[in-house]
Amino acid sequence: MSTLPKVAWIGLGIMGSPMSENLVKAGYDVTGHTLERDKLDRLAAAGGTAAASVAEAVRDADVIVTMVPASPQVEAVAYGPDGILENARRGALLIDMSSITPQTSVDLAAAAKDKGIRVLDAPVSGGEAGAIEAVLSIMVGGDQADFDEAKPLFEALGKTIVRCGPHGSGQTVKAANQLIVAVNIQACAEAVVFLEKSGVDLAAALDVLGGGLAGSTVLARKKDNFLNRDFRPGFRIDLHHKDMGIVTDAARTVGAVLPVGAVVAQLVADLRAQGDGGLDHSALLRAVERLSGAQV
């Protein structure tokens, strides 16, 4: 019998499916629930167990992981008679790995405490590739003892795992991460359009830029997207639009001014309004091309 905790995994999307499968590979007993039947079948094929409801998935779990799109979905699976808080056992550890507002995480931790359930907010960075390769960065908010307990599970999912402070801190750091990523993608997109309009060999230019101070994880991960105009979603514009709303609202609350971030947030919103919300966030290139007169 395995001595590892039993895991319930709620949300089997682009990130949740490979992450839950990595836990199965690491020897965890994983029971998952999501709304899409094919995702449940995929988990079962990988060695996990499919559950028909949130309540069924969490009932016997030691650890419950949620990986859903935004705050409303977290609240939907956490609260109510069929939700996590009403059906998980006392003493269970709830790890929310979604990207949501810091206040939602703080409120969830308070509500869960009344039920005897511990909570960590643990959003991730690294995109689909990082989820598949189990090299995600995981930024965690919550109590130190709960973080220490969860550390082995996190190590099956990522490489950079840091407790950033109390409840909500992980989400605050994730918001900052999304600000940096969006601005970086926008800068790369502008450089690509500039280089192409100048007649430079784009592949060669991106190679040399990647080896200098302009190099970044964003450029390394998204270079082929730019070169091939491949915008299949690894992280959708719709989700980055949501995240830019989180960071701009949180910054306003604490009195931080984000002039470049505000502009990029509007460019992300514009791209979404143009019907590109389902594309990868590297599709910010399309917005720059439109502004530069291209028909895309």
Automatic annotation (TrEMBL):
Keyword DNA damage among UniProt keywords: no
Keywords, in A-Z order: NAD, Oxidoreductase
UniProt-listed SUPFAM superfamilies: 6-phosphogluconate dehydrogenase C-terminal domain-like, NAD(P)-binding Rossmann-fold domains
Record domain 3-hydroxyisobutyrate dehydrogenase-like NAD-binding: where: 168-287
Residues covered by the 6-phosphogluconate dehydrogenase NADP-binding domain: 6-164
Similarity field: Belongs to the HIBADH-related family.
Protein name: 2-hydroxy-3-oxopropionate reductase
